Sequence to fold (295 residues):
Amino acid sequence: MKTLKLIFFLITVNFCNSQSLKGIVKDALSGEVITYANIVLKNGKGTYSDEFGSFKLPIKNIDTDTLKVSTIGYESQFIPVNLFKDHLIYNVLLAPKTEGLDEVLISSKKLKYGKKEILGEQREGNQSVTSLIGYETAVLIDNPKNKTGKVNGVYINLKKRNDAEYIATFNVKFYQFDSIANAPGELMYNENIYVQPKNKKYRLWVNVEGFGILFPKNGICVGIEMVNTHGTVKKYAYFGPMYRYTFTEDKTLQTWSNYHNSGWRDGSIEYKNPKRTKVGVLNPMIGVEVEYILE
Fold:
């Protein structure tokens, strides 16, 4: 009998500690739902809010874990998950950011620019790498002229994934380069830029000419986040397309990854080909079209 009671107690404890968080992400001022917001737990599990702002996320440590909810244009929320205990569905209210555009961007229409130039990894690469839903891949685009300009477009070299069950949505982001942290810094454009790629081998161009995005003297970090806009899908579903990577012997960190906005990590891939004795790193073939301001 004691053994049966002990088993029942353990099952009860496990059930209580293995629950699901349910919520709706809303604009704190307008009350409108916020779609595709990043939802991530301190322990690393993450998801997105759907087209109705709703989300559901399994959790084991309801008394100790913390939830982070974030999206471009809003202040992030950090919520102790035990607040969900007394709510069937918890309303997460995000406050809009009130940051304005840089003065250079506001006056950019009055400036004169030179010819268009393409910067970034343009060499042919045969390596293809599959990213995962919820991950953002960012690359540093160096500024060889050390002059200020503007970004007209972004390109992403892609390759078909033959076993893809779904096509991901890309969210394109722009960051200042933080040379002290050696990582992407502050966002330079305060809205999500969603793009629907095709699952084939090609170069995807994203036109951002009218967005007033500055190209700083020390370069810019371009981030591509792979988002699921299909609603609930089966676990470990295969998403396409894949990123095309190129090889370089320069091991300087220039690629990062970020899972559901939980923090930047080294995203470059170490490469070694024993047949050709090549050692280096693989980086995604992402670049920009820029115009420099004429002095």
Summary: The radius of gyration is 22 Å. The CA atoms of residues 153 and 207 lie 5 Å apart.
